[in-house]
Amino acid sequence: MTEVSTFNQGKEQPIKASEIDPTFKYELEKIPGAEKLLLCFQCGTCTSDCPIARFSDSYRPRTLIRLAQLGLRDRVLNSDTLWLCSACFTCTDRCPQNVEVDSIIRVFRNLAIEKGYIPQGLRDQTQTLLETGYISKVPESRIKKRETYGLPPLPKTNPETIKKILSGIPFFDHLQAIPNPQGDNKNDSQ
C-alpha cells in the first residue's frame, strides 16, 4: 500500500487501493460545473483564500478536489466538510487555473445527495421548511416575546405551496424518498 494519506476530521487516513475508482474523475468532468476538475494543480490558492478554511481545521477545498482526482468517490461524497462551503466564490475568483471550485463542490453535493449522504442538520432544516414554511422552527416563547415588544406577527406561510413549488426538484424529491430513522445517515456518526 502506498503511504498516501488524506486529512479527514483531524485524522490522517491511509488510502487503500480498494477505495480508488479511476473512472470517477472522468465521470465528474462530464457533469456541468465540474468540467475543469483536472485543471487543478493543487496550488492551494482556493484554500488559503477561503473564509471557511480560516475558521475550520478540516475544510480544505483543494483536498476535496484532490480526493476526487485520485478517484476516492466515497471519501468525497461522504465528507461532512463538503457541506461547509458557503458558496462565496472566493476560490473561483482567485484560482490561477480558472477552476470553478464552487461549482465542483456543488456537483459533489448533488452526487452526495443522490447517494443518500445527507447531513442530519440539512435533513432537519428541509423537513422543517416543508412542514412550517420556515427553515427553522419558531418557538412559541419567541412568538409571545414578539407580542410583548409590540412587533407584528410573523408572516403566514403556506407549506403546501412550498411543497408544490419544490416538487420536481431532485434534492427535495430524493430527500422525501429516503427513509431516515435517527442516526441512519453515514454522516451522523462523524
Question: What would your notes on this structure say?
Answer:
This protein is mainly alpha-helical. The protein has helices at 24-29, 45-49, 51-55, 61-69, 73-77, 90-94, 101-114, 120-132, 140-148, 159-166, 170-177, and strands at residues 5-8, 11-14. A two-stranded antiparallel ribbon has the order 1-2. A hairpin with a 2-residue loop joins strand 1 (5-8) and strand 2 (11-14). Helix 8 crosses helix 10 (159-166).
- Mean pLDDT figure: 86
| Distance N to C terminus | 25 Å
Helices and strands: which structural class?
Answer: mainly alpha
User: Quaternary state, please?
Assistant: single chain
Content of β-strand? under 5%
What string gives the helices and strands in order? EEHHHHHHHHHHH
Q: Main beta sheet: strand number and arrangement?
A: 2 strands, antiparallel
Query: What order do the strands of the largest sheet run in, or round the barrel if closed?
Result: 1-2
User: Which blocks of ≥5 consecutive residues have pLDDT under 50?
Assistant: 1-10, 181-190
Number of strands: 2
Instruction: Give the % helix.
Output: 40-55%
Task: Indicate the radius of gyration in whole angstroms.
Answer: 20 Å
> Helix count, per DSSP?
11
Principal-axes geometry comes out as elongated
